[in-house]
Amino acid sequence: MRHKVAGRKLGRTTSHRIAMTRNMASSLIEHERIVTTIQKAKTVKPFVEKLVTLSKDPTVHHRRLAFARLRNREAVEKLFGVLGPRFKERPGGYCRILKLNKPRLGDNGQRAVLEFVERTPKEDEVVEAEAAE
């Protein structure tokens, strides 16, 4: 039993897990919605929410902290240019995890959608058009 063992290892080495978290966070910031497994989504969600909280106060220090964690210049620019102002008045809870019914092919893993709570209107129209088809 895993009593008092904190954190998810996800069957990866530490460096692989850190790189995967950074890549998934960058993808979430860039696309504002990603499809992944439930376990990975639960790992990435707090990481991204802390970055969004940093971006609400756009100082140079916070930009450098965000870049140190993400290592992706475009993601940091969007984080501070778009997402920070969007969630300025929101006290927390910037992301949500929606479980998908159909499991992943190959290993039958539970899939989930990790997305921001508030999205841009253009992306909402595209998602509604896909759902209608």
Describe the structure.
- The chain is α+β, with helices and mostly antiparallel strands and about 130 residues long.
- The protein has helices at about 15-30, 40-55, 60-70, 75-85, 120-130; strands at about 35, 95-100, 110-115.
- Strands 1-3-2 form a three-stranded antiparallel β-sheet, covered by helices on one side.
- Helix 1 packs across helix 2 (about 40-55), helix 2 packs across helix 4 and helix 3 (about 60-70) crosses helix 4.
- The radius of gyration is 16 Å and the shape is globular.
- The N and C termini lie far apart (about 45 Å).
Descriptive key words:
133 residues, alpha+beta, 50s Ribosomal Protein L17, Chain: A, 3-stranded antiparallel beta sheet, globular
